Amino acid sequence: MKPDPLGLSAMLEAGELRLEPLEERHREDLRAACAEDTEIWQMYGLSYDPDHFDDSFDGLIAMPERLPFALVVGGELAGMTAWINPDARHRSAEIGNTYLRPKFRGGAVNGPLKQLMLRHGFACGLNRMFFSVDTRNQRSQAACRKIGASFEGVLRNHMITWTGYERDSAIFSVVERDRELLGL
């Protein structure tokens, strides 16, 4: 079990939506889900395409700074997400490593998923949660705006992705003072 001083790794549920801590038992269903859109991995820091899936999955499970989840909708694995670098001292964490199967995209899942995570993060004592999005990924930036996250700016050359691309990242956040306005 990974260290989790904030208690973020609890299973979460809302209606048909369930977040389960990602485990080995999710490997094959997630492999199939990630293979449904191989082009999207060009915009991710790591690739979960068929050629890279096992190494990326093993790394995700092993990374102490990530608390990954399988996203299940109506009993079907719909994708994954994670808490990244939760910091108990500064009461902040990134929400990322999110992937949704194509049929679960379009807002019906992502909005409720992020609201569930944001509510849980605040309940666990977080003051700030943020999203780091490749500036090429317009769909994810629109999703951040749709849930009410504030655009903070762009981190230029923020990371080098698995393809060698020098990624600029758009940063969006939700902070404690946003709770009431966003109904969290």
Q: What's a concise summary of this model?
A:
With 184 residues, the protein is α+β, with helices and mostly antiparallel strands. 24% of the residues lie in helices and 35% in strands.
Provide structural commentary.
The chain is built from five helices and eight strands. An eight-stranded mixed beta sheet has the order 1-2-3-4-5-6-8-7, sandwiched between helices. By secondary structure, the protein is α+β, with helices and mostly antiparallel strands. It has one domain: 3-Layer(aba) Sandwich (Aminopeptidase), CATH 3.40.630.
> By CATH's scheme, which homologous superfamily applies?
Gcn5-related N-acetyltransferase (GNAT)
CATH architecture: 3-Layer(aba) Sandwich
Report the β-strand fraction as a percent range: 35-45%
Order of helices and strands: EEHHEEEHEHEEH
Number of domains: 1
Structure characteristics:
24% helix, single chain, alpha+beta, Aminopeptidase, 5 helices, 8 strands, eight-stranded mixed sheet, 35% strand, 184 residues, globular
Ordered list of secondary-structure elements with their pairings:
Layout: E1 12-14, E2 17-21, H1 27-34, H2 53-62, E3 66-73, E4 76-87, E5 92-100, H3 110-123, E6 128-134, H4 138-146, E7 150-160, E8 166-175, H5 179-182
